[in-house]
Amino acid sequence: MNVVRCRDAQDLGAQAGAAGAASIRQALAEKDEVTILVATGASQFETLKTLVAESDIDWSRVTGFHLDEYLGLSEEHPASFRGYLKERFVSQVPLKGFQYVNGEAVDPAAECRRLQDLIQSRTIDVAFIGIGENAHLAFNDPPADFETTDSYLVVTLDKACREQQFGEGWFPSFEAVPKQAISMSVSQILKARRIICSVPDERKAVAVQRSVEGAVTPDVPASILQTHDGCTLFIDAAAASKLGKA
User: Fold this and answer.
1) Burial of 146 (0-12, 13-18, 19+ CB in 10 A)
2) Which of 42, 54, 90, 91 makes the best surface tag, with the fewest CB within 10 Å?
3) What residue spans define the domains of the chain?
4) pTM, 2 dp
5) Tens-digit pLDDT profile for residues 75-127
6) Burial of 172 (0-12, 13-18, 19+ CB in 10 A)
7) Cα–Cα distances in Å, from 8 out to 13, 86, 235, 240?
8) What are the start-end ranges of the H helices in 43-158?
């Protein structure tokens, strides 16, 4: 894992978005169709803003996959990740296609199988991800399952994760935050050839420090990124505040 320290959230987004765009262009030069993963949340605002403004990407040859979604939340809810992605990414670029996680599926396990059938034969060229305050990847809260070979899982969200979602203003109360979600697994995320991880904000500083400088452990899900040679972690000065100076 390579770590890039940026001045602030805007600089982080500019650098992460540009690096992701360059990786997409490189993949398009190598093959006919490219597959990417796209994350949501406050950490992705600036990165996605930069990405959609990048020129010379043939989006008609790019298919996107969604990382996670709350169970039982309508697409019209302000916290819906489907709604977030449609507004901030999918409506902005002429993609070949985009596969959403349907959090309103009557049978969530069947929805996981549907998504797995769609993604398992694909090479993931570029993954845009973030890290949670509890160091989660997608909605894989600690202790994360590093061993499963399933591509998508039904997960129970821990208290710290739900508090983060409330604290960021997505829900009117902590009680309103759903307790379960469908999430892409850690093993599926790690299959990406290139990972662009955007993490701004001081409230993520402890998670960043434990993910970068601590042991690789399911108790710190994002620590697994240390094992991925194609991962670049973009952090602003606030998120880097607890890291060593090296």
Assistant:
1) middle
2) 91
3) 2-235
4) 0.95
5) 999 999 999 999 999 999 999 999 999 999 999 999 999 999 999 999 999 99
6) exposed
7) 9, 26, 8, 10
8) 45-53, 81-85, 108-119
